[in-house]
């Protein structure tokens, strides 16, 4: 597959590092940047035969099969429109839109053009995430009750992120999009998110958007997705997920503690990891960042999906649902109430309700708890199915 990159900034380089890694057969052939100088530098660094400061020229290049959008948030819509017009498959970075309405337009454009719209949600492709999701789907932790995801760091690296109009929001739209989609995967993408409660504040930076937020997304089956996001966190980039199930638990630490600890007096000039704040003292580097952040598995799924004419695991539809949840989070932060998630085009299940599945002990009783005491005694706590009486039974 031949790929064009739109943008030459931070994420464009992460993507290019992934696309150029491990002797991949899918290759970058062109790059667009509004500055010819930066386009040329990017093309030189990655050995691309073509570069331009004209977006339509890059998208329309007949050598290009698929376009990757790595531009600031306010440019995603116009870039998707250009790709759809040119009949090119398009992979767009997160967040898909600044709002659900923008994301819906993008989704409809690719669907009308008959091209694939892949949502580049890398954190739903990390090796740890993929394995834990497979365990959840295999039933290893039972019924998912709560899925929490946290992304916090000291704030983004470019000016436009801090401009509410260009970015569409603060930490919620920037980081919450990852956390929401992680929880949604664990809970089940066919389960409808119904309402959101969110607290958001601007605690540290002189900006119009929030730099810190917590939120709860309630799903139709009664499960809760929780997001914790901040641009105020000091000490690196904290990416952690937690899933509580009726039969088990998963804790993931994706970045700040991966089992690689290093001490340096600060000698040398080493890059440690994304958003690491220091290169001296005790450090927590990340072995193969591009792989551990999910980029390799993400692009493999995207190109396989194009070849196999199927949807990728993360599609524009997923990006749209995430944007709708974020819209509700912003409404809730303002109103201080649970706010409904408005999804005009819901494609998942509509037959799900908040059911309770209690474990039966026998025909008469439910099992509440089985306990072993320090002296070795065993007992059961049971509830009678009709009278509701709670009783103890020693074993
Ligand atoms: N993990 C992830 O998936 C991840 C991480 C970081 C950023 N992102 C996303 O990637 C996108 C780009 O972020 P970034 O971190 O690379 O930012 P960046 O500032 O490093 O790069 C932005 C790119 O957009 C270009 N650009 C900005 N304004 C422009 C304009 N008016 N006209 C033409 N080009 C313009 C810049 O020149 C640059 O090439 C954002 O949507 C961001 O949310 C995703």
Mean pLDDT: 96
Bound molecules: nicotinamide-adenine-dinucleotide
Distance between the termini: 65 Å
Largest sheet: 7 strands, mixed
Structure description:
This protein is of the alpha/beta class and 395 residues long. It has helices spanning 10-19, 36-46, 55-60, 76-86, 100-113, 127-137, 164-167, 171-187, 289-292, 295-308, 316-335, and strands spanning 2-6, 27-32, 50-52, 66-69, 89-93, 117-120, 144-152, 193-201, 212-219, 224-230, 238-245, 248-253, 262-264, 281-283, 339-340, 365-372, 378-384, 390-394. A 7-stranded mixed sheet has the order 12-11-7-10-9-8-15. A 6-stranded parallel sheet has the order 3-2-1-4-5-6, sandwiched between helices. It has a 3-stranded antiparallel sheet with strand order 16-17-18, with no helix packed on it. It binds nicotinamide-adenine-dinucleotide.
